[in-house]
Amino acid sequence: MATSGDWYRLRRPSYGTDARLRREWTCRRFACYVGLLTLNIPLVEGHIRAAISALAYTPAFRSLLLSLLARPGRVLAGNGPARWPAYVLETCHALGGDLEAAYVAAAAVEFAVAGIDVIDDEWNGDATCRYRALNASLAFGWLAQRCVGDLTERAGQERSRLVADLLAQGSLGSCGGQDLDLVLETSAHVTEEAAHEMTRAKSGSLVAMACQIGAALATDEATTLEAVRCFGEHVGVVAQVLNDIAGAAPGGEGGGSDLRRRKKTLPVVYALRCAQEPALPTVRATYRDTSGNRGDEEQLARAIHDLGGIHYALVVADVHRREALAAVAALARTTGRPEAHRLRRLIPPVQFPRSRRVAP
Amino acid sequence: MHLSAIHEAVRAMVQGNVTGTAHQSGSDEEPMSGVERAALRALRRRLRNVRGDVRRLVPPAEAVVWY
Q1: Which of A32, A35, A231, B21 has the most Cβ atoms closer than 10 angstroms to its Cβ?
Q2: Chain A contact present for B12, CB below 8 A
Q3: Which segments in chain A show pLDDT lower than 50?
């Protein structure tokens, strides 16, 4: 559903005296305002459940796949936004694509991303649990491919091939970023540029892929697809940097999980560079020590915060947010579709947390 | 993106130099983009508004908690 903010931000282009174009613009603006074309996430859920049930898996494996897709943020979680299908559906709708085909494509994207996320997730259970998850990751990849196959009936062979290419390109880009992330964990000297590149590859390429697949169901124009890729990449980086902040902030939602795994995220790398100053040797020493306890993580989080790591990451996220907003405006202008402004809803807000003074 | 220039600017601001602009334009060869300057201005506004007169009395990082 469009918000009242969307309504006021839709500027009418100069259509002169052409009554038909004016009428069309008014109808589109009204549809955007009242949300006549409400996106149906349950239909994506239906495709996902059907794809899993249709295959002759054992009940235990089916249950494992469904439970992984019901984790927080996933489409079957049922208590929050399903962001990956939303990227596909919103982009497809914004550019006037076939929404019925988009529901199948969104299922393919959800499977592909779930498969990649399983590798990145923290597994505290025993080895069997971890290996089962890795096996499930493989299955998700094949399920994604099967969904793309189903898409052929609905969207035609050419579009289906384009979607398959984009899915492979985005997934492989993200796998490369994931690998870089793991390599950086063990690397002693990591630059901010390397951490930024890792973030762009790991998350930026994945969101760019989801958005491009939505766009590919509407158009095959290379310039539009490139503009959507640019938008998606910025959105992905914003989301990942905000996630990194939560994982490194003292008392943050991530509970210092990134610090526990000694990940070289952007706020951490900033702090490590600051810690090269002679007066701050403890931060580097603590980060090298992998046997750290909870107390060490709190101390690290406090040091990163005090050095300005959180502020720095927020500025980087804000830069990408502004770039994404500019990309949306350019997309709406070049395609002549006011619905493109709806894509702003996909950009995570970047806000400095509420501040409070404490006694010195 | 000019990550090093942003690093220097944020570091200066966190250390209390919230009014300075010397670090905020990047190098002569590679000036910062408009959005990079705008994001830094947003941070500077925030720091200035929160700290106010307390920044002269205590180190900024100890005076303000951002979460």
Answers
A1: A231
A2: no
A3: 1-16, 30-37, 354-360
Q: What is the pTM of this model?
A: 0.81
> What residue in B sits closest to A200 (Cα-Cα)?
B1
Q: Which domain holds residue B35?
A: 3-63
Angle between helices A83-94 and A41-54 (to 10 degrees): 120
**pLDDT tens-digit map of A250-263:** 765 555 667 777 78
Identity of the amino acid at A153: E
b/e A206-227 (16+ beta carbons within 10 angstroms → b): bbbbbbbbbbbbbbeeeebbeb
Cα-flanking dihedrals φ and ψ of residue A156, to 5°?
90, 160
Distance CA B62, CA A275 (A): 18
Domains defined for chain A, CATH in brackets: 1-38 (no CATH), 39-346 (1.10.600.10)
Q: Which two tokens stand for residue A134?
A: 């890795």
Q: Within an 8 Å CB–CB cutoff, is residue B45 touching chain A?
A: no
The Cα–Cα gap between A294 and A317 comes to 28
Handedness of CA A30, A33, A36, A39 (dihedral sign): positive
| Total domains present in chain B | 1
Enter the tokens of residue A309: 């790591």
**Amino acid B44: pLDDT:** 79
